TrEMBL record:
Catalytic reactions on record: uridine + phosphate = alpha-D-ribose 1-phosphate + uracil
Annotated EC: 2.4.2.3
GO molecular function, one term: uridine phosphorylase activity
UniProt organism field: Anoxybacillus flavithermus NBRC 109594
Identification of the protein by name: Uridine phosphorylase
Residues annotated as domain Nucleoside phosphorylase: 58-236
Length: 250
């Protein structure tokens, strides 16, 4: 296989050739999950997507669920999210659903709430390469409304609002966090702006569905002992997976 182009010049045909696949192998939707636990999350999704599985990368799987082809990738940060979204948006995937976690910037959000992201501020270091003239990027309106209706119908606790997407959570201080909160953001994450921006660049639909992992506005971190938080987080993860699968079938 010889393709005398650079990645940004690849066409759909080039990516099909690079992956050695046919058009029928391309998923209609892709769930992009931002988290450390690659092996755990891939195992969860392999148990859900059990038919005609193929693996484009070590951190991702594609297969069939209810006769529809769907993809899942476990990423961490904007660069790895962008690789998946760029390649599969180029291939023709229509819907990208960012799941994962956020640090709480609002006193009103609670553990157990699903954050339905309406927009993300682009401070991740990746999204500006796709949308150089923007500071924020919006989620797809239809996906937002459908997600809200889903949660309402099932009685799932949710909030809507914006996130600040950063590439460097370890530099967070009380001063920085207060600044983000004063801008009106509900939370901070590492992938949502990237996924939304790449999708927008390719005229695809995308949304973020996030789980509160650490309530940093209250000085709660990953390392604060909180058994109840961890139990709620697991239950909320499953609700988000359920919602993501529902949206993937639109």
């Amino acid at each position: 296989m010889i393709i005398l182009k650079l990645y940004g010049e690849f066409t759909k045909k080039d990516w099909l050739k690079a992956f050695n696949i046919e058009e029928k192998d391309v998923p209609k939707s892709f769930i992009i999950h931002g988290a450390w636990e690659y092996e755990k999350n891939l195992t969860i999704w392999k148990d859900k997507i059990v038919k005609d599985i193929w693996t484009p990368h070590w951190n991702s799987i594609i297969g069939k669920l209810n006769n529809q082809r769907i993809g899942f990738a476990n990423v961490f940060g904007g660069p790895s999210a962008a690789v998946i979204c760029h390649q599969f948006a180029s291939l023709g995937t229509d819907i990208f659903i960012q799941t994962g976690y956020f640090g709480g910037l609002s006193h009103d959000v609670q553990f157990g709430d699903i954050l339905i992201v309406t927009a993300a501020e682009m401070a991740d270091g990746v999204s500006h390469w796709y949308l150089p003239d923007q500071q924020t990027v919006q989620s797809d309106r239809e996906l937002i409304e459908t997600a809200i209706n889903f949660c309402e119908d099932r009685g799932y606790s949710y909030v809507t609002g914006t996130v600040f997407t950063t590439g460097a959570i370890m530099v967070e201080t009380s001063e920085i966090v207060q600044k983000w909160a004063k801008s009106g953001h509900i939370g901070v994450d590492m992938e949502t702006a990237t996924t939304l921006a790449v999708a927008r660049k390719f005229n695809k639909k995308a949304i973020g569905l996030l789980n509160l992992s650490d309530h940093i506005i209250k000085r709660d971190t990953f390392y604060s002992p909180n058994k109840r938080r961890d139990e709620i987080k697991e239950k909320t993860d499953e609700k988000i997976r359920e919602l993501a699968l529902y949206l993937s079938r639109l």
